[in-house]
Amino acid sequence: MAVNLGSLVKNLSLWSAGGDGRLRGFDKLGSTPADVRAFPNAMGMAALTRGAAGYSGTKSIAFVDNLNDTGAGSLREAVEGFGKEGTFVIFRTSGIINLATTLFISSPFVTLAFQTSPSGICIAGANLNIYQTTDIIMRHARSRLGSHSTVDETDAEALSIWNSDNVMIDQSSFSWGKDETVAVTSYGGTPFTRVTFSRCLVSQGLTDEAPEPNHGYAFLCNGSYAAGNSLDIHNTVFPHHQGRLPQIAGDTRCNLVNNVAYNFDGAVNSTIYLYDGSFDGIQINSIGCITKAGTEGNLGVSYGGNAGEMIAFGEQGATPRQALYMRDNFGTERFFDTDPQWSVVDEFTSAFVSAQYQSLTPFPTTDGLPIIETTVNQDNFVELTSVIASNCGATVPVRDEVDTAMVADTINSTGSWKAGSNYPADWGTYGNKAYPTSTAGDGITDDYWTHKGLSARGALDLAPSKYLWIEEYINDLADRRYSHA
Q1: pLDDT of residue 273
Q2: In whole angstroms, what is the distance from residue 337 CA to residue 330 CA?
Q3: Span 3-21, pLDDT tens digits
Q4: 3-state secondary structure at position 357
Q5: Closest to 109 in 3D by CA, of 69, 50, 181, 159
Q6: In what order do the strands lie in the sheet with 201-203?
Q7: Rounded to an integer, what distance in angstroms lies between the CA atom of residue 90 and that of residue 87?
Q8: CB of 106 within 8 A of CB of 137?
Q9: 60 DSSP 8-state letter
Q10: pLDDT tens track for 259-317
Q11: What is residue 381's DSSP assignment?
Q12: What pTM does this model have?
């Protein structure tokens, strides 16, 4: 049999085994074009991050092979600590990873491909914290903190992002936080920048387990400790929370596009705060977002007199300035195209937000790629609520029982807030399918190459799509162009 020596040498030189067992590819400078998106249909401020592929040094592939909190083959071993930059994280196991302490992702240029798990992964017990880093991609993750968590209240979220730049969170599910369920914060004078939440599901902040009473909140975006914060949230669903859907404060540029909030307290969806002080450049675009009354709440105290505002607007003594742009938002107080755009906004001290705070044109966004909005009107906002809910959250390899219930509640106007959780019974069950054969040992399955009609390629080689082959593989899984047999 003839042997192609050139191909053999190339494949042998691609990988070297490090002392920690992860596979490393030699530096492949110039193989990750800057004009390629995080994944083919990525939108938002972080749409151009490449995660691990954007690292200019030696890239590696790390494998999560067990559900242990620590040690070889664990998620913590794969991502925590220094020297993990340029890592693609592949999950070759399924089930619940119950963390005892916060898991910090602090090395830059990391891609977490939860979609590679054969039957699905869920984090419990402590939060994921993307901490003072840059260029992170996370897709099809599930994280549910839960009542059994013993972490400090400052870490009592399912996901935290501190002082980080160029972070893409796509098709992921977060539940059962004790304070907020998700928090993005600028601690210590350093801003968060270019953070995107795309098609996520943030559900059921725990109402009785919070550090403060009645604090079952969804999402805090706090830019009060540094100048120049920026993020966007689009096509994301917030069912069953008492508030903060999201709360945005401080010096923050934020785009809210085609999000849905369901069953929230006092009918307050988002809360926006302006402060006087050195950091206060808040600019919010709220476009095509939808609120939906639920089975409880929604008729409580309303700060400005309306029982059904989408945004509660707090001045906090701030100097009047344009801060909020509203277009085509529908729900509790706006059911018709002819209703005023501002009818869904309350100021804390008056019926509607004062004209001096209103912007009649959208604030410009120069980071990343624009979010292509779905136009919302009086004829389609009910149907669109179902479409957005049906496509949010972690769905690969499957949508689990918890998320299935949250989506059904949002569509059918059912369900309720959650006071506390029972571990592990409430987390549902995950299958135990084996990871398919990968003869090359790089995580790309043999069946994938058959699916592509190709012989095996080097995982860190460039595909015709301009993605690396390992990216092509995990993107095809995430977007259901391919599934494990």
Answers
A1: 75
A2: 9
A3: 232 332 233 233 445 556 6
A4: helix
A5: 50
A6: 95-98, 121-124, 142-144, 173-175, 201-203, 237-241, 260-264, 290-292
A7: 9
A8: no
A9: E
A10: 999 988 754 557 777 776 767 788 999 999 998 888 776 543 333 334 456 777 776 67
A11: H
A12: 0.92
**Counting runs of H as helices and runs of E as strands, what totals does the chain give?**
6, 29
To 10 degrees, the CA torsion angle through 307, 350, 217, 341? 70
User: What is the crossing angle of helices 381-390 and 401-412, to 10°?
Assistant: 180
Cβ-proximal residues to 228 (8 Å cutoff; 6+ apart), any chain: 191, 193, 251, 281
What pLDDT is stored for residue 345 in this prediction? 82
Q: Which of 49, 114, 108, 63 lies closest to 84 in space, CA to CA?
A: 108
CA 231 to CA 218: how far, in whole Å? 16
Mean pLDDT to the nearest integer, 356-371: 93
Closest CA to 395 of 140, 144, 137, 159: 140
pLDDT at 30: 36
Contact 120, 485 (CB under 8 A): no
Confidence class for position 343, pLDDT limits 50, 70, 90: confident
Owner of token pair 């003594």: 317
Task: Give the model's pLDDT for residue 46.
Answer: 98
Q: Are 181 and 202 in contact (CB under 8 A)?
A: yes
CA torsion through residues 62, 65, 67, 73, sign? negative
Q: Are 216 and 207 in contact (CB under 8 A)?
A: yes
By CB atoms closer than 10 A (0-12, 13-18, 19+), residue 293 is middle
* The amino acid at 329: N
At position 290, the amino acid (one-letter code) is I
Q: Is the pLDDT of residue 421 over 90?
A: yes
CA-angle at 35, arms to 34 and 37, nearest 5° = 100
**Which one, of 99, 84, 76, lies nearest residue 52 by Cα?**
84
Owner of token pair 């909140």: 217
Cis peptide before 246 (omega within 30 of 0): yes
Calpha distance 95→309 (Å, rounded): 40
Whether residue 407 contacts residue 270, with contact meaning beta carbons closer than 8 Å, is answered with no
* pLDDT at residue number 268: 54
Dig out the tokens for 99 from the structure.
């963390």
